[in-house]
Amino acid sequence: MLLLGTELMRSPRELHRGTPVVRYAVLVFLVIAGLVVAVSWTLDRNGRRSNWQEHSTALDGGARVAASTFGTLRANLRVQASGLATSLPLQRAVLTRNEQALREIAATRHARIVLRDGRGIGALAPRPRIDSTATISDGRQILAKVTIALPLGKDVLTVIREATPLPAEASLALVQNGRLLAGGPRGARVEPRDGRVVFGGTEFAAQSAPLGVRETTVVALEPVSAIDALSARYRRFILLAALFTLALAAALATRLARPVAQIVGDVARLSRQAQTDGLTGLANRRLLAERLEDELERAAQNGTSISIVMADIDNFKQINDTHGHQTGDAVLRAFAAALDRSVRETDLAVRYGGEEFLVVLPGAGLANASGVAEKFRKAAEELEVAGRSGETARFTVSFGVAEFPTYANVEALVAAADAALYQAKRGGKNRVAASTVQGPNVPPEAPARLVSLG
């Protein structure tokens, strides 16, 4: 009893001394818990947003490449029609009115031949389709018209898909007036809104590009579940990191001076990682959006220029197919390193998405920026990357340049540089094109001037 009484008398003093420590430990733990929860939520949100933007950019690029490939198909169709019209067997059959020969040619070439008297021989593919017509004349009058058609269906879609780089789970669809022609359930309607569509009970991320044929578009689709699955893996990693941090904080709450400092350092590092592309180490699109808005505002206030250079590695899909994706990643890193070595401290080099890069050049006019882009192009030509079998992989890059204040906001400036880039691509690749149209509201199809023939 005496011992028990002594302990009861000593306990209040010890409890009094221990209470501040307990309270401090609880307070520190709660602060750390709040910080961990906030950071985890922010990282998860930014990770999902960045992941969605990356895939949307890839789908948008894929849709535009698919539209370009479709344009090539139409051009080939015109060449075929012209070649058939100038062929000697057809001209001889038209001049001699040899209907048997005309029927054989029409059946063999899937063409329709309309003679001067209005008679038609042969049948075209059913609509929807694309077609091209050429004429046969004797210099004074038209003797016949020859039409070759290509049905808008899965065969065309297969050709386009083979030439289009897309994410692993993505696909293409041909759509006319909202009706699905190929690439999904027949009869379904596809109307992309806010970058998403739903058909067949599945929600897809979607980006479209017009084909210039009777309200027909090509749509690049990727299941939202596939995109979210990537975010889910990142979310699980964040959750595990958060639980581990909380367990450590609970175990060492009374001696957390150093762990707290380490956590603060980790938060700063993760924040930097949220603004950096993991593969190349360049800035990502999130940092680009913040920086470019600030630079345009500063240039507007000071009355100075600012240019952007958009770059795209030529034939990147072929590099991956020939040398492997690891070599493709090495090519991206090599070109990113060349950009990083070449830019000034005031410039910003960004991996824009996929094999596309963007460089912000504060204070640079269009001519100066075009010269800088030409240096980038030559530097890329000199790069060599080791392939998976020891072979050397070389590559070229195309560039598009646009200038502020010719284009008065971020959207117009980026769209003009992108249009110039595609002009460089259409001009033969491995060259620099600068946007030449004046005015603040220039559409993405704005013409560009080629300033380097490579």
Describe, in plain words, how this protein is organized in 3D.
The protein is α+β, with helices and mostly antiparallel strands and about 450 residues long. The protein folds into 2 domains: about 15-275, no CATH class; about 285-450, Reverse transcriptase/Diguanylate cyclase domain (Alpha-Beta Plaits). Helix content is about 50%, strand content about 20%. It contains 11 helices and 17 strands. The strands form 4 sheets. The chain has a 6-stranded mixed β-sheet, sandwiched between helices. A hairpin with a 5-residue loop joins strand 13 (about 385) and strand 14. It starts with a helix and ends with a strand.
Mean pLDDT: 81
Strand coverage percent: 15-25%
Order of helices and strands: HHHEEEEHEEEEEHHHEHHEEHEEEHEE
Number of β-strand runs: 17
Helix share of residues? 40-55%
Give the number of domains. 2
Q: Please state the CA-atom Rg, rounded to the nearest Å.
A: 31 Å
C-alpha geometry: elongated
Q: Count of helices?
A: 11
The low-confidence parts are 1-20, 439-454
Structural class: alpha+beta
Largest sheet: 6 strands, mixed
Strand order within the widest beta sheet: 11-12-10-15-16-17
> End-to-end span in angstroms?
99 Å
